[in-house]
Amino acid sequence: MGHHQGPTIDMTVSGDFRDLPTRKPSLVAIAARLLMFGIALGFVAMLFWLAVFTLPVLLLAGAAIYLYARFAPNRGAGPAGPAIRIFRF
What we know:
Layout lengths: L26 H45 L18
């Protein structure tokens, strides 16, 4: 047969029992918690949207810039001297 331990009773460090809450939170406190949760959820949703929709655009722009720098024709020496190559391939 299983042994039932009974309910867990919270005690303080000094050995006294913890007082149970005497009243429920007010509607203002509940509304404030819901507002904070909604703001946090909106912030996380905005960060997710930025990650999903802007990272591919930035990756494609970076690839285009890399390919242009890699395969751009060498313009030769201009009036200010030879062009500086960023990548050495």
